[in-house]
Amino acid sequence: MALRELSSLEKFLGLKKPNKYSTQGDRKVPVLQSNSGPGLVGLVTIATQLTQEAKRPDLLGKSAEERAVVQQWLEYRVARLECCVKEDIKTILKDLNTYLEDKVYLAGNHITIADPLMYYGLHPVIMDLAVMDKEKYLNVTRWFDHMQHYPGVRHHLPPVVVLRNRVYTSGHH
Amino acid sequence: MGFGDLKSPAGLKVLNDFLADKSYIEGYVPSQADVAVFDALSGAPSADLCHALRWYNHIKSYQKEKGSLPGVKKALGQYGPAGVADTTSGGGNAGGDDEDDDIDLFGSDEEEESEETKRIKEERLAAYNAKKSKKPTLIAKSSILLDVKPWDDETDMVEMEKHVRTIQMDGLVWGQSKLVPVGYGIKKLQIGCVVEDDKVGTDQLEELITAFEDYVQSVDIAAFNKI
Prior knowledge:
The complex is a heterodimer of chains A (173) and B (227). Chain A has 7 helices and 3 strands, in the order αβββαααααα. Chain A is mostly helical and 173 residues long. Chain A has one domain (2-149): Up-down Bundle (Glutathione S-transferase Yfyf (Class Pi), Chain A, domain 2), CATH 1.20.1050. Chain A has a 3-stranded antiparallel beta sheet, covered by helices on one side. Chain A starts with a helix and ends in a 24-residue tail after the last helix. Chain B has 227 residues and is of the alpha+beta class. Helix content of chain B is 36%, strand content 19%. The model of chain B is unreliable at 89-101 (pLDDT under 50). Classes of the chains: A mainly alpha (173), B alpha+beta (227).
């Protein structure tokens, strides 16, 4: 799963030469093989490295504050999404919904590496979400729909249909 | 289309509802559409219209690139949800152009244009009231893409398509179709249609199609877009 994500990320970043990856351990942590020395371990580390390689430092955040926020979301992705239980999903979605209420992208006013990575992580969750829940976490749905239409992000994942069902709008703005 | 009068709370509410599940006025990138609507607002929306406020702050950050955003600026009445009376077209094309001159947040000529803005405001108010009393009805339409699945690969897809197309309903217009392979030699029929929301429901359509039990195993909605 993580390996396909990383190759999608490479395409998103416009990296021409795909890298070699492998996994280690039960949790299938991705490893980036490099010619010099030990490989890079971990989704966040590799993603950051790829962004540097693609010479897109703006994707890591334009200011110190933005960079911190990007790192925070990358950590969130690995720490909470990878090993979460069904009950946690509701909390995660609720947190995300509140956070995204006044934001278009996760960090700042432009896309960063946190957005596609959170999108990949959340994709299986949102795929299984009922229409009612999609309405409930409207901001997450909006951000998710935005991400899957952003040029270069979606790649290997099937699009999730996002329909605004007028029946449920009475309780929301 | 259109949001109604964007200077009125009702218009802002329409904008807020519209933006609840969208990041931008049109499509998924900032464009001249966003610039047009942004310019029409007289200021930041209040905090209780959280989606409008979010969008407003986001577009404000694109201030410097305003001119280089993609798309063509259209009259304000062209944007927004279908089904809302277009109150700006009362002023005609002049109304559309005046949107730019009127409330130009990034310009410095506001003093000189206050006379003009007053006149335009009154003109638009009169047009809005006239429109309101006439109450034109706009038909809400949607474009639906249906996936019709056969029982197996022996099913005659041409016959199936013929049967599906015989379904006639008021407000339903069949569109293009194509066969998409799903694996093991089975193909599904992807057929599009345009329906009027009030007259045709998707459950009805699905029932009518699944009634052809010999050919159709199931029907799914692959895509549903409002026009």
